[in-house]
Amino acid sequence: MPKKTSAATQEFVTIKDIRDGVIILKGGQLCSILLASSVNFALKSTDEQEAILQQFQTFINTLDFSLQIYVQSRRLNIEPYLQILATREANQDNDLMRVQLREYIEFIRTFNAEVDIMSKNFYVVVPYSPTPVNITRGITSLFTGSTKATNTLPAEQQFEENRTQLEQRVALVTSGLSSAGVRTVQLKEADLVELFYHIYNPMDAVGNAPTRTN
């Protein structure tokens, strides 16, 4: 029974490998994931809102490939933040400030127990699907429908060439979103592993609160 369960789980996960920040799917498609910042759109003036929409529309119109936008909501873990506050309370010389810190800690702990405080992360998935080409027959294989190659590129060289194409798309997306005021960071291997762990284990999806108090 355990073997059957393991096999079924592996079939459900479409990821074959993660190399150098690039996700390799079982079908051969490559993907990169960008963590995107949010924009306080409602707080912008009317002119600023219109400018953001125009920039985003221009960005979308320049794309000749599809994108996926993924929003992840995670319950906020405030314990690291409360520990920092508790340390500052212990080191506080001013009695009034010490009392205020203690009351603030209790308020945050009580509020978090009554209300689920959620954090949201925004991700942009940039895909690239390699087109199989028989380098012996050349480009004619694309029109004949034959993808069986007798002399294909070495696997490592093929991966590097495909990754170059993917990186060009990532650069285009990064530049386009930046023009609309959205900052992006490409996820590395450790970040990708953590992201997919929480996707496939939603009960463990807990985010950390900011640790800065100033």
Query: Helical proportion?
Result: 40-55%
Radius of gyration: 24 Å
Q: Can you tell me the residue ranges where pLDDT is under 50 for at least 5 consecutive residues?
A: 133-151, 209-214
Category from helices, strands and their pairing: alpha+beta
Count of β-strands? 7
Q: Largest sheet at a glance?
A: 7 strands, mixed
- What's the mean pLDDT score? 80
User: Would you list the SSEs in sequence order as H and E?
Assistant: HEEEHEHHEHHEHE
Strand content: 15-25%
The termini sit apart by 54 Å
The coarse silhouette is extended
Number of helices: 7
How many distinct domains?
1
What does this structure look like?
The protein is an alpha+beta fold and 214 residues long. The protein has one domain. The protein contains seven helices and seven strands. It has helices spanning 2-12, 46-62, 79-90, 95-114, 140-144, 155-179, 189-200; strands at 15-19, 22-25, 30-36, 68-77, 118-128, 184-186, 206-208. Strands 1, 2, 3, 4, 5, 6 and 7 form a seven-stranded mixed beta sheet that branches. Strand 2 and strand 3 (30-36) form a beta hairpin. Helix 2 runs antiparallel to helix 6. The longest helix is centred in the C-terminal third of the chain and has 25 residues, at 155-179. It is extended. 8% of the residues are buried. The model is unreliable at 133-151 and 209-214 (pLDDT under 50).
